[in-house]
């Protein structure tokens, strides 16, 4: 069974703080993704990575950065948290062999920025 | 125009009923289509892929209509455990990124 874990289920931060969200997958997947999910908007892709040290911007990268130093780990960084970054953050991974693949999601991190 | 659009519902149906809903996608050249299921406060999980000829998985049937650019999901003999949000997912530009609809909420009542 594929397992994707995220470092925190719930997080409360203050405006201007630097925030790190970590994601680890245990199935040697090539691709990893960070999404945010907001009511009525669905999942929106922030960044994804198709290999170690490789990253590509998704649809809403502003205010975020990512790091992938090891294959199994993909970190999302909010350099200076703002209240409009309050959201559910979901990490996902996929095998990397094609474009019709299943993405496996972690349990999500609910971030509240005060 | 959004890449993937869904009727948010909610669809409230009694146990044993049939419920069906659609989603539309923007790019006629899209090749890969999926339905994911998301339970309340949980992560999305793949329910089924959608193939050109349509496909069935138990009580769930998915159809693709390329001419009108929509996919559908039909649930027969609804169970209480089918209550969830169903996400329409399309590989709109045939790359590594998936586009997600906002979801259709289904509530099955006893």
Characteristics of this structure?
heterodimer, A: 114 residues, mainly beta, seven-stranded mixed beta sheet, four-stranded antiparallel beta sheet, 11 strands, B: 110 residues, five-stranded antiparallel beta sheet
Question: What's the quick description here?
Answer:
Chain A has 114 residues and is mainly beta. Chain A has no helices and 11 strands.
Describe this structure in words.
The complex is a heterodimer of chains A (114) and B (110). Helices cover 0% and strands 56% of the residues of chain A. In chain A, strands 2, 4, 5, 6, 9, 10 and 11 form a 7-stranded mixed β-sheet that branches. Chain A contains no helices and 11 strands. The termini of chain A are far apart. Chain A is mostly beta strands and 114 residues long. By secondary structure, chain B is mainly beta. Chain B contains no helices and 11 strands. In chain B, the strands form 2 sheets. In chain B, strands 2, 4, 5, 9, 10 and 11 form a 6-stranded mixed β-sheet that branches. Chain B is globular. In chain B, a hairpin with a 7-residue loop joins strand 9 and strand 10. The model of chain B has no long low-confidence stretch (mean pLDDT 93). Chains A and B meet through strand 5 of A and strand 5 of B.
Low-confidence parts of chain B: none
- Write the element-wise H/E pattern of chain B from the N-terminal end onward: EEEEEEEEEEE
The chain pair with the largest interface is: A-B, 21 and 22 residues
Largest sheet of chain B: 6 strands, mixed
Radius of gyration of chain A: 13 Å
* Element-by-element helix/strand order of chain A: EEEEEEEEEEE
Average pLDDT of chain B, to the nearest integer? 93
Radius of gyration of chain B: 13 Å
Binned, the helix content of chain A reads under 10%
Number of helices of chain B: 0
Content of β-strand of chain A:
over 45%
**Category by helix and strand content of chain B:** mainly beta
The gross shape of chain A turns out to be globular
The number of strands of chain A is 11
Q: First CA to last CA of chain B: what distance? A: 38 Å
Uncertain stretches of 5 or more adjacent residues of chain A: none
């Amino acid at each position: 069974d594929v397992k994707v874990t995220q470092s925190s289920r719930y997080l409360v931060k203050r405006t201007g703080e630097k925030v790190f969200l970590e994601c680890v997958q245990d199935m040697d997947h090539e691709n990893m993704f960070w999404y945010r999910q907001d009511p009525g908007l669905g999942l929106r892709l922030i960044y994804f990575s198709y290999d170690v040290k490789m990253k590509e911007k998704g649809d809403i990268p502003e205010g975020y950065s990512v790091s992938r130093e090891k294959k199994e780990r993909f970190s999302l960084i909010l350099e200076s948290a703002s209240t409009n970054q309050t959201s559910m953050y979901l990490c996902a991974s996929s095998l990397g062999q094609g474009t019709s693949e299943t993405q496996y999601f972690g349990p999500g991190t609910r971030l509240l920025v005060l | 125009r959004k890449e993937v659009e869904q009727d948010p519902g909610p669809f409230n149906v009694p146990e044993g009923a049939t419920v069906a809903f659609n989603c539309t996608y923007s790019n006629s050249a899209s090749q890969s289509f999926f339905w994911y299921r998301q339970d309340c406060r949980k992560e999305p999980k793949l329910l089924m892929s959608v193939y050109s000829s349509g496909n069935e998985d138990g009580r769930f049937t998915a159809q693709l209509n390329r001419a009108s650019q929509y996919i559908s999901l039909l649930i027969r003999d609804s169970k209480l455990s089918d209550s969830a949000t169903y996400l329409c997912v399309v590989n709109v530009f045939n790359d590594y990124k998936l586009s997600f609809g906002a979801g259709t909420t289904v509530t099955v009542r006893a």
